[in-house]
């Protein structure tokens, strides 16, 4: 027989034709591959599906809306901190620049005017002290007025309580008696505060009068040097006012930076707490999955991981009672698995 030629089977010999043989071989190979895939899906398939399930759960945990919200707070606080710190650096630089310029200009003015500046300094110092004493007098006057108002209101409460007791003299209602005792205590406290505020007001008023008298005395004694050194002290007052404004701006920016940094720290702590909660939830889910596998004695089939977790009552850290449909589905899948194992053993 020549190469390339095939022997034809005689009719009725019982041997299959070449086309039928190739079809049967292909069918056998396909069945073997299916069996191999089935065998592999018993072990590695479950691991692959488990890995995919864990990755899906991890992806869902990463999409927690609380994390997104806290991240937005964190980014906003970070941007605001950077912006405020830039403004703070500029304000500090401006303050230092004005301070340097004021010192340079005042030194130049002092060199031109000479010794009259030192001679007139006690007068301007007395003026500064007199201004501060006047401000303290105004504050003491406000405190005294407030104490007088509180004392008057407390006395009115005592009057109301006394009238109530006189009206209910036959019943002797304890409520009115308690109100009278409370009002009397308030009157005593208000009286003490009024007397203290009055003494303080008198004291600061006397200091203010003494400071004003000293200013008048120095003004008469140093009239000529005061007039001559006036440009220097006016320039100094202007620079002091500008420096006070810039210093106030620096202090305000420092307070704002401190508040925003506090917000940043709070958002960071919230993120850490959320991460710990997610980690604890993941641990509970894994523990529930391991308990489910230990009870079954074999690896869970494809898609049974989430059902095992739900059946164990663990979902996001809460006890969950699964619906009846889930329980019926789980029982049906378990019966199908047992039937499949029985068929494989018989084969």
UniProtKB/TrEMBL annotation:
GO molecular function, one term: guanyl-nucleotide exchange factor activity
Residue stretches of biased makeup (Basic and acidic residues): 19-41
Segments for region (Disordered): 1-64, 282-305
Pfam families for this protein: SH3BP5
GO cellular component, one term: cytoplasm
Chief location bin: cytoplasm
Subcellular location: Cytoplasm
Coiled coil start-end: 67-101
GO BP: intracellular signal transduction
Functional description taken from the UniProt entry: Functions as guanine nucleotide exchange factor (GEF) for RAB11A.
Complexes and interactors: Interacts with GDP-bound and nucleotide-free forms of RAB11A.
Annotated family: Belongs to the SH3BP5 family.
Domain free text: The N-terminal half of the protein mediates interaction with RAB11A and functions as guanine nucleotide exchange factor. Four long alpha-helices (interrupted by a central kink) assemble into coiled coils, giving rise to a 'V' shape.
Protein name: SH3 domain-binding protein 5
Phylogenetic lineage: Eukaryota, Metazoa, Chordata, Craniata, Vertebrata
